[in-house]
Every structure is written in structure tokens, then in C-alpha cells.
Amino acid sequence: MSQKKVNLGVREVPKPLNWISFSLQHLFAMFGATILVPKLVGLSPGVALITSGLGTLAYLLITKGQIPAYLGSSFAFIAPIIAAKAAGGPGAAMIGAFMAGIAYGLIALLIQQLGTDWLMRLLPPVVVGPVIIVIGLGLASTAVNMAMYEDSGAKVLVYSAKHFGVAGFTLALTIICAIFLRGFFSLIPVLIGIIGGYLFALTQGIVDFQMVLDAKWFAVPDFVLPFVDYTPSAAAVGIGIAMVPVAFVTMSEHIGHQMVLSKVVGQDFIKKPGLHRSIFGDSVATMLASCIGGPPTTTYGENIGVLAITRVFSVFVIGGAAVIALCFGFIGKISALISSVPSAVMGGVSFLLFGIIASSGLRMLIDNKIDLENKRNLIISSVILVIGVGGAFIKISGFELSSMALAAIVGVVLNLVLPESKGDQDGIEIEEHI
């Protein structure tokens, strides 16, 4: 556990001015990624900020104020939400997200009763690593379309060198900030990239700023109420079931974050207050988000980075950031400003963020020393990658299992049925003798 000096403990209350500045720092750290997800899937950024704040506050309550973790929009659900919206509209996507949240809750109950060994057996790194790679690479075409075309959502795509130039500028600025900036600004390269790309896009005439001028200072964002305005159908339930496997991927990510956070803070959060409470907090946050039209949530590595650098571990600081995010969601001009960001800017940032997601999966394989000369590991990872990146899916009547969900399920099944044997190294021995 960490022995470095702690500037503010988990349950310590900061002084008012420090409280505001520390909370704003956490808000900025998660802001770029949290608003990017709803922009990519066609949901309201204002609602995403509100659900991020509500979800974090619920998480802090459920974990008894003992884990300083911030919850933001999950990238793992981008492709499933897009597919669900295309198949059944926003309501169907939110019902699917709600069912994924229920899956979280059931897993939390199982962990409470049975411990964590069974979950590690179900989702080892050889399965989770390739699935995370699939998440990143599966979104690559989305980033390219946003960067290259005037309207990435149009039926007929029109190439635009101007839009591609804006995307390139945004990407370059984000990379420069990530590499060369230090201190607080090194924590928000995505936010700086979006702001810089937005200003450059203004000079290129591809920003509609009128919506910001017309927006009111106080405005209720576009909530989606799936269980009020949308009648669940068999197709919607099928879409929901198809989104559930994604929960296993984000749960694995959640567990990894808890391990890192425990080392940073110097307390074993897996044992106290317990992994079951942490995952259940994420479950409730995701279900809350889906009930009003926000993307599913997950713990954020960006905010863990802030904790590691500042040594300020106070849950009151995290709660302050959640309250500010909640307030921002009701400021109409801020929501309009976010909505006015051109897709080319978001595409440029996505080149980096989606690539980082894929690289994170690769890093998981390396860190856990997964031997791909072992035939069993090679088979599992290869099949997951081809199914996920290739876009394979299963469609029966109104039910469709997306490529990422299918890849995750096949990976789990292969890991359970393929025997672990020393004979998997035979290929290496033959090669050496030759």
C-alpha cells in the first residue's frame, strides 16, 4: 500500500475555497470523456452531466462514503447504444442499459454471497483484454466518419477536407497537451483539445453558434423516460438482453480501478467496504441514468489519476464535483455550447481515445503476462478479435446479438470449455527442435 504523504484523507472535509477548486479539478478531469459519449450516441450531454452527478452521489452513499471514486459515461456501451437506437429508438437503448444495470446488481449480490474467485474465473485477462481491444477498434470507423465527412449520420456521405483538417488539428493539439503539459493541465488534454478544436472550427465556419445565443441560461435538458414515454416490447427486451454481456466487460474494468485505487489511497477497498458494494453502486448509477436518458456509467481512471497526483482523497471533494456536474446539466447555454461542438472535433479526439481503449486491452494482456504462444490463449484471443472487429452478429426475429456482445460471450464460453494443459506448449518445443 502507498506510504506517501496524504494531503486530505478519505473522510476529511476541505476548507471552502479548497473544496471548490479541488472539486472543479475532478470535474474537468472527467468532463471531456463524459460529454463525448452522449455526443457520439446522440443523447443529451446535459442529461449525461446530470446522471454522472446523480450516479456518483448514489455511489458514495451506497459505499458508505468510503471510496473516493467518480462515475462518468461508459465508452464500452457506445456501439451497443447506437445499435439499440437504430433498432428500437432511444427508449429501447435505455431499457437495454437498465437491464445491464440489473446485471450489475445481481453480480454484486453473488459476490457478497460467494466471494470474488468465481468472477475472476469467468472473466480472466485472456478474455477481458481482447474484448477491450474490440471495444476500441470497433469504434474506429465511427471516429473516421465523424472526422472525414460533412455529416457522419447522412445516408450519402460527403467527404470534406475542411472537416478532416479540423479533426487533424484537434488530434494534434490533444496529443501535444498530453505529452508536453505538466501539472493540472496534463490531466485535461482532452478538454483542451476539444476547446482548441472548437475555436479552430469557428474560424473554418463549421460551427452553428446561434443555438448558444438562443439558449436560455436555465433549461431542462432533453430527458428520455423509457418507462413512461416508451412501452417495452419483445424486441426492446431482446435488445436489452444483447447489451447485458457488455456489463461483464465494464465490471472487469471496475475491479481493475478498485485495485489501483486501493494502492493509491493505501486502503483495501476490495475488502472494506467491499467489492459488492462498489459494483452495486455502479449498478444503481447505471439504472438511474437509463431511467432519464443518460448513458451507462463507470468508474473513471482520469479521476484516479487526479487522486494519485494531488494526494487529496476526500469523498467530499468527489461529492462536490458531482453536485457541480448536476448543476451544469441545467444551465441551458452550457448544454447548447456542448451540442454545438462539430462532429469533426469529436472525431479528432476520438482517434486518440478509441485507440487508447484498444491499447488498454493490449496492456492488460502484457501486464498479466498472457502467453500467446500457448495455443489455448491464442485461440481465445483470436476468435474474440475476429468476431468483434469483423462485425459478426446473431439475428433471430427481433433479437440481435451485436458483435461486441457476441465476442464477449464466445470468449467466456471458450475460456470455460477449453482445457488448460501443458501440452499447449508443444508447438514451441517442436519449433525449437526444428
UniProtKB/TrEMBL annotation:
Listed transmembrane segments: 20-37, 43-62, 69-87, 93-111, 123-144, 164-181, 188-207, 227-249, 312-332, 344-366, 378-396, 402-418
GO terms for MF: xanthine transmembrane transporter activity
Record keywords, A-Z: Membrane, Transmembrane, Transmembrane helix, Transport
GO cellular component annotations of the record: plasma membrane
Major subcellular location class: membrane
InterPro entries attached to this UniProt entry: NCS2, Xan_ur_permease
Compartments, record wording: Membrane
Domain of life: Bacteria
Entry keyword Transport: yes
Membrane-protein topology: Multi-pass membrane protein
UniProt similarity note: Belongs to the nucleobase:cation symporter-2 (NCS2) (TC 2.A.40) family.
Full protein name: Uracil permease
Organism (species): Bacillus licheniformis (strain ATCC 14580 / DSM 13 / JCM 2505 / CCUG 7422 / NBRC 12200 / NCIMB 9375 / NCTC 10341 / NRRL NRS-1264 / Gibson 46)
Gene name of the record: pyrP
